[in-house]
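Revision sheet: structure tokens.
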Amino acid sequence: MKRRGIKVAAGQAAVLVVGGCTTSPAQNLFGSFFPAWMLCAAVGILGAVVARQILIAGGIHRDLFAPPLTYLCIAVAGTLLVWLIWFGH
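Predicted:
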């Protein structure tokens, strides 16, 4: 009897986990669906490149402690910001 309860609980947990997979956040670009997270990541990386150019022009670049980590954080922040603006409810 206990084994059956575990199977039922596992089945219910699986239903709850995959219940959010009804639609994927895909965008229609030029007639083909493209994963939205990839678009947001591309915009975030582009934002990091622009931020790097601004920091270099301002002379701040050489004062950064860990430039790769800084630009990675800028890219992640830009990606998440675009995701929240685009898909935030």
